[in-house]
Each structure stands twice: as structure tokens, then as C-alpha cells.
Amino acid sequence: MPSTALVVASLSLTIWLYLAIARGKFWRLQDFDDDAAKHEPPTTWPKVIAIVPARNEAATIAQALTSLLQQKYEGEFSVVLIDDHSEDNTAQIASQAARALNAESRIEIRVAPPLPEGWTGKLWALNEGVCRGAAPLRPSPATNAQMSADLSRAEPREPLRPSPATNAHSKPTYYWFTDADIVHAPDTLHRLVARAEHDHLDLASLMVLLQAKTLPERALIPAFLFFFLKLYPPSWIANPQASTAGAAGGCILLRSEALQRIGGFAPIRSEVIDDCALARAVKVSEPILAVLQRSPSTNQQPSKPDQQILRHPEAQQISAEPTEQGTNLTGQIWMGLTRASVSLRAYTTFREIRDLIARTAFTQLQYSAPLLLGTLLAMLLIYVIPVVLLFAPSPAPRILAASTWLLMSLLYLPTIRFYRLSPAWAATLPLTALFYSYATFLSAARYYLGRGAQWKGRSQA
User: Fold this and answer.
1) What is the H or E stretch that residue 411 is in?
2) Domain stop point among 298, 322, 343
């Protein structure tokens, strides 16, 4: 009768064989590396508006905004920056950066209205950016400053309800949602639009290169990418027949018609993992209440009249049209990688990366204690037990454990190479997984203590 150690070792190896063969080849980064892809230009370049939500980004906003305003894009392109009630001088630095490039006519800087109950700050800022993007730009900095001051004193207003007077000429074909701490290569928008037009995509996103310079970053950040790709294999995301939907929130190109079709941001207004929620809503354009009801980060349904979902007229009209036998419209989405666009956010301590993980880990588990327990046990079985079994008394479990560790290291190696680190880092994945397990447990503890999803002074869960 086989020993317990042999059974456990065999199970762990079997799981890794499944991950290697049947998990969408998530570990083959070259298959979805956008930097190596060919991009066939469209016959005409559509209008694009970049929307940048920014909260306390004084350290990075100038570089990020400069990279946007220096995009080599052949079509009509402008930027709307939404200051999400920053406590620093983010908006002033952004204005100075635009002035230095003599690009004030291509950017509008606004202050988000007061955050309504039930919305996360980023989604409310994006909602405001979409509303502003439908209106003509105001080139005068003085006018922008005055209107921003007026908005900061305004009452919360209805989400995403553009004026009926908005015409097709002023409406962009795409919105480009990008974070205020990312520097893009000059051809990033060109590549995104070329791919979206050629492949008829509703949503295209790029996972930008995160910093991997400090010891904590080199030890933990590559695994952040590895685990994300394992959860959301890009080949499954791009497959319209697969239910998997994911996106990288730092760089998303979204077709405006797709945003209209799902009813704007209101259906996902309380989502902490907003990028994947948006991708899910676009890929399977379900009725709005259905999306809300199955949302893992929506704690309760709106009950007051002023909390009910508000949509713009076009979305109401589309959602009212029944589909054959209740089937859903589907959207085509895609996610890839790039080293050309880089996040400026640095993590100098293990604590900072721990908090990055803990912010959304329990949300990913739908705030479920059983799922938490199952995940922690699975992490031990898949990543940690193979190392422990290297010291088993019998040779068979040791051989299987060594094979498992070798296999996981080989699958992790392409991610290590993507970050241009020493191949030796691939062997540290078990230790890294143990750290991620600790951060996941901490995420749950913080949620039950009422401090879940902490981000820049806000608790969003």
C-alpha cells in the first residue's frame, strides 16, 4: 500500500502536469508578448480619449502624462485627467507638465465629484472621465481650474448619463484607461488600436512591466505576474467560447460601444478588482442586475432610490432589447504583455508588497472562508509540500518531489526571464508562494476587522 508521502507527492506532480499541459499554456509568455507582435495599421485611425484617474500621484503624474501627450498616434487623440480628491498637488503638476509640452489644448483636468456611496474611487473617477470625454475639450487652464473648483463643491450626480445633445462626431471610438503611475512607449496607443481594429476587439489590455529592482521586488513581483496569468490564462481570455475574462487595469483600451452596451460603470461600481470585472461584463454582456448579483465584491444590493443603477439612454434602449431565447451578447477581449510600458511604482520593502497582495486577495476569493481555507491548503500542496518531501525517508516520494520542484521552476522560468533576472530566482517559487499565502490570510483578517481593500486612505471592502 503506497505511503501517504508517495500519494501526496504524486498528487502535487499531477497538478503541475495539468498546469503545464492543460491550463492554456499560461506560462508561455512569448505567445502573448505584444512587443514581438506585428501590428497591421487600419485604413483610418479612430478617435481615442485617454482617461487617467489620479489620487495622490504627485511623484509620477508628470512622467505618466508626458508619455501620453507624446504618443505617436495618427488619429484624433486627447487626454482627460480626473483628480480623485488628491491630498497632494497632483493636478497642479499635471497642468505644469501639459504646459511644458504646449499641449494644454489636448488635455482636460477635472476634479471628481464627491464619491457616492457604493462606488470605488477609481471607478467613480473613470465614470467622470467618460462623461467629460463626451464633451468638447476646454483648452483654457483657467477655465479648467474654475470648473474643477466648482465640481469639488458639487453634490454627487448620476453616473454616466451623457447629454442627448452629444453627437457622434464628439464621441470617441475608444477610451484608453491608464493609471497615473505608468509611462508608456510612444507607440503604445498605435499598437493597441491597430490590434483592436484588426481583430475587432471590444477590449484590449496590456500588462505593463512592474518594477523588479529592489530585493523585495525581485523576490515577489515576478510571481505576481505568474499567479495572475495562471488564474487568467490569456489564451482563454481571448477565446470567445471560454468563460475566462480578465484584464490589466493599468492599460485598457475599451470600445465606447461596448461600454454603452454594458450600461457604463454602474454595474461594477463597487468592484475592487475592477479590471477583471469590466472584462467579464464586456465579454458576456449580461443584464446589469445579473452582473451585480454575481459580483464577489458587492456586499449588498442598492435599496434606496438614489442608489439604484442609472444608465444613459442608449444603454437603456439596448438592454431592453431581448436576445433570442435569453442568450447574451458576447464581446471579444484580449490581454497581452509589454515591457515597453513601465509602472513607476516602486516597492522597497516586503511589507509594501504584502499590502499590495492583501488588498484584493480575499476579494478574489469572494470573501469566502471555505474558499480561503481551500486556497491555503492548495498553495501548500502545490508549492510547499514538494520541498518538504525532499526529506522523506523513502526514495520514491523524494524523486517525485524533486521532479515537481524542477517542473514548477521550469514553468516559472519564462516569467523570470521576462523580468531579466537570474534564472536562479525560478527555484524560489515555493518560498514566494508561502509569502503569498501569508498575505492572503492577512487579507481575510483585515476584511473581518473592517479594514479590507485599503488603498490610499480608503477601505473599499
Assistant:
1) helix 395-418
2) 343
Q: For 196-243, what is each residue's pLDDT tens digit?
A: 999 999 999 999 999 999 999 999 999 999 999 999 999 999 999 999
What pTM did the predictor assign? 0.84
Bridge-based pairing of strands 182-183 and 333-343 is antiparallel
Residue written as grid cell 497642468: 95
What is the DSSP annotation of 231-296?
HS-HHHHH-TTS------TTEEEEEHHHHHHTTTTGGGTT-SSHHHHHHHHHHEE--HHHHHHT-T
More confident residue, 162 or 178: 178
For position 175, what pLDDT does the model report? Answer: 98
For residue 64 the three cell numbers come to: 505618466
pLDDT class for 459, splitting at 50, 70, 90?
A: low
Q: Could you give the number of structural domains in the chain?
A: 2
Residue 41, domain CATH: 3.90.550
* Cell 481575510 sits on residue: 444
Instruction: Give Cα 136 distance to the centre of its chain.
Output: 28
What pLDDT is attached to residue 458?
53
The span from the CA of 320 to the CA of 156, in Å, is 27
C-alpha 166/C-alpha 197 separation (Å) is: 24
Name residue 22's amino acid.
A
Neighbours of 176 (CB within 10 A): 25
In this structure, the answer to whether residues 12 and 133 fall within a common structural domain is no
Is the domain of 294 the same as that of 391?
no
| Residues 299 and 150 grouped into a single domain | yes
Confidence class for position 325, pLDDT limits 50, 70, 90: very low
Confidence category of residue 452, pLDDT binned at 50, 70, 90: low
Identify the domain boundary among 293, 328, 343.
343
Is residue 427 within 8 A of residue 405, CB to CB? The reply is yes
Taking the alpha carbons of 242, 341, 297, 283 in that order, is the dihedral positive or negative?
A: negative
Task: Examine the domain organization and report whether 293 and 380 are in the same domain.
Answer: no
The share of the chain scoring above pLDDT 70, in percent, equals 80
Write out the three cell numbers for 73: 498616434
pLDDT for position 134: 65
Short-list 172, 329, 327, 175, CA closest to 261: 329
**217 alpha-carbon distance from chain centroid:** 19
